[in-house]
């Protein structure tokens, strides 16, 4: 914007209009403003060829331009990310899935990538899972409870806290008796059942759903 004003003779409003046109890639608006820029720069005693070259540079920069410090930061992040994924794929994918756990589409994409990398993603388990995706072993991770739909942070905190204090859960009745049902409501338990978090009991999910009202009672 400062360049447009000092070299092209633009007003503040015109300079902002140029910025928007370049950023949003509006070719018609950009062409008209660039023509005005070249004319203004020429009037400010810049050779016409140089003014045209500068206008084309501004237009090109709008495609995807970074200053050196920004480009260097991106390069460092890209290098470190690639290194972690290459040498610690299970840990990397667990961290990535934790950061995306509220976006179902991205979790599905990550699951596909885990399959491609040969990483086994174990289902959620109220006796094993923490809030986040956790590494069980190289090539194996456990799905995080907070990644299950309808299961909030307070519910997860209650489940993990109850498990630490009382030990593993032995039945759906045991679970409902121990956890704080103000935090872990019926909808939360239904979602956990449907996600496979109680499959370790050996009962069908439909059976667990049927006895759930009685367990809550």
Please outline what is shown here:
With 217 residues, the protein is mostly helical.
Q: DSSP helix count?
A: 11
* Whole-number mean pLDDT: 92
Structural category? mainly alpha
* Major pleated sheet: 3 strands, mixed
**Low confidence ranges:** none
Strand content: under 5%
Shape category: elongated
Any overview of this molecule?
The protein is mainly alpha-helical and 217 residues long. Helix content is 65%, strand content 5%. It has eleven helices and three strands, in the order αααααααβββαααα. It has a three-stranded mixed β-sheet, with helices on one face. A hairpin with a 2-residue loop joins β2 and β3. The longest helix is centred in the middle third of the chain and has 20 residues. The termini are far apart. 25% of the residues are buried. The model has no long low-confidence stretch (mean pLDDT 92).
Topology:
Blueprint: H1 2-6, H2 12-24, H3 27-43, H4 48-64, H5 68-87, H6 89-99, H7 104-117, E1 120-122, E2 134-137, E3 140-142, H8 153-166, H9 172-178, H10 186-195, H11 205-216
Parallel strand pairs: 1-3
Antiparallel strand pairs: 2-3
Helix pairs in contact: 2-3, 3-4, 5-6, 6-7, 9-11, 10-11
Any key phrases for this structure?
single chain; 217 residues; mainly alpha; three-stranded mixed sheet; 65% helix
């Amino acid at each position: 914007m400062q360049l447009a004003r000092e070299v092209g003779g633009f007003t503040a409003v015109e300079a902002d209009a140029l910025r928007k046109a370049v950023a949003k890639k509006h070719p018609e608006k950009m062409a008209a403003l660039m023509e005005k820029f070249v004319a203004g720069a020429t009037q400010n005693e810049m050779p016409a060829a140089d003014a045209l070259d500068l206008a084309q540079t501004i237009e090109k920069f709008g495609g995807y331009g970074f200053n050196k410090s920004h480009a260097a930061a991106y390069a460092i992040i890209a290098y470190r990310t690639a290194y972690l994924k290459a040498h610690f794929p299970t840990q990397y994918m667990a961290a990535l899935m934790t950061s995306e756990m509220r976006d179902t589409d991205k979790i599905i994409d990550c699951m596909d990538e885990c399959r491609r990398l040969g990483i086994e993603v174990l289902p959620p388990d109220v006796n094993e899972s923490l809030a986040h995706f956790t590494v069980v072993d190289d090539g194996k991770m456990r799905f995080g409870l907070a990644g299950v739909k309808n299961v909030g942070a307070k519910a997860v905190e209650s489940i993990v806290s109850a498990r630490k204090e009382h030990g593993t859960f032995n039945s759906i009745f045991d679970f409902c008796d121990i956890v704080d049902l103000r935090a872990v409501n019926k909808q939360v338990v239904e979602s956990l059942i449907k996600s496979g978090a109680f499959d370790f009991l050996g009962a069908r999910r439909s059976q667990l759903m049927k006895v759930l009202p009685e367990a809550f009672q």
